[in-house]
Design goal:
Two copies of one chain form a homodimer. With about 260 residues, chain A is of the alpha+beta class. Helix content of chain A is about 15%, strand content about 35%. A ten-stranded antiparallel beta sheet of chain A has the order 1-3-4-5-2-7-10-9-8-6. In chain A, a hairpin with a 4-residue loop joins strand 3 and strand 4 (about 90-95). In chain A, helix 1 runs antiparallel to helix 3. Chain A starts with a strand and ends with a strand.
Chain lengths: ~260, ~260
Amino acid sequence: MDRIGRYEFLAEPFHCDFSGRLFLGHLGNHMLNAADFHSTDRGFGMRRLMTMQRSWVLSRLAIEVCEMPQQYERFIVETWVESAMRFFTQRNFRVVSTDGNKVYAYGRSVWAMIDTATRQPTDIMAIDGGALKEWIVADKECPIEKGGRVRIDLTNAALIEEVKTAYSDVDINGHVNSVKYIEHVLNLWTIQWHSSHRIRRFEIAYVAEAHAGDTLQMLTEQKRAKMLNDDGEQLIAIMKDGEKEVARCRLVAEAMADD
Amino acid sequence: MDRIGRYEFLAEPFHCDFSGRLFLGHLGNHMLNAADFHSTDRGFGMRRLMTMQRSWVLSRLAIEVCEMPQQYERFIVETWVESAMRFFTQRNFRVVSTDGNKVYAYGRSVWAMIDTATRQPTDIMAIDGGALKEWIVADKECPIEKGGRVRIDLTNAALIEEVKTAYSDVDINGHVNSVKYIEHVLNLWTIQWHSSHRIRRFEIAYVAEAHAGDTLQMLTEQKRAKMLNDDGEQLIAIMKDGEKEVARCRLVAEAMADD
């Protein structure tokens, strides 16, 4: 079996925004689906891990968009493991047109493996004698920054919005799902802003879990609050119930030229 | 070409709720995708209509669930045109397992055709000399109630919740998309309620369009407000900006036996 997985998806109409382009959250969802299919097909998927009291946990996701697929376009999400250590593995993504001629996006992700009983990190290499290493593709290019810790100074933070989470936010683990955070963050900007800016890079680090009913606070640094509608870098921290940090995002937005 | 369309879908992990079952909104989305594929394959799809200054508009959707597909299950959405008149056509759905042995759900929908310039209803039979009639399947069973007007007495309504719509709610027409209404309505109930009740029937009638930024009021009749957490029938009216009705829903929920 090829070490690189390739999975085809469709930009469904209800997964596209006002401009007819795929929502970034849905692109992220397709990447996570591809990761799941790839690992399942190669023997280290979520369902098998569950039987071993283990689970993959997404720690970080970074997406850089060249051009978003348009409504009804079919596209391929390629995914492969770039590296694997004891407590973290890096998985990359490349989103291309079905003929392979156009690159829509790249992605990078970092995953940990936890013990589902203790919720503590466990040794990835303990699974099948480190079999994951056999799937590493070290030489396939993923020409986007890795992205590290998102630095936000929260000592003087400005509240942008509060979001009450509900039934539809929550996955089978009872946690607010990774894709819904992306959706909630992009909702901080109006359609008017989205129609004159495009998200070139979106980066999210998952810090702790939130549950249905938790109220999320979307914050930025005080000094950045008045630049929220500018282009360039935006930093968003997500807290729950005013005290605990749940996730951090870094966006890079570009102003679009008028048509 | 068969008059009945059959399209396969997967219950993706992030499209499943806390119980590992497909969200009803996503089932609705798959039905609407199937409708779109079916009509496109047969020459009366949205993209061709757009070139003729016409568009399909979903007027009503009713879904009855026997059993929701579980995470990772593949299923088939069958769809066919039951009847077609000058201003409305009825399209049905049957959701079955890939081996055809298990029925997950049935659906009924009513569609109008509008002139995209005037937004007024137009004659469906004017398209290709009434060619839609050739696709009618009158004898395939869809054993669920048609459902008519949802009657709600709004003279004495109780506000349940307000929902501010945002970027991710809106489709290519700039309108809050049909699937997002289902999501917002099901969010009116807590996970605790959803874990002890299942939605047997969900019915929605689309009355007017809402746009990003509109605040939706979710209302029920005053006398029903205290029964909102009971089983049985629930009636929800959706208004925008406190004055204009946007949609009406009728749910039938069943209390589940304790495990």
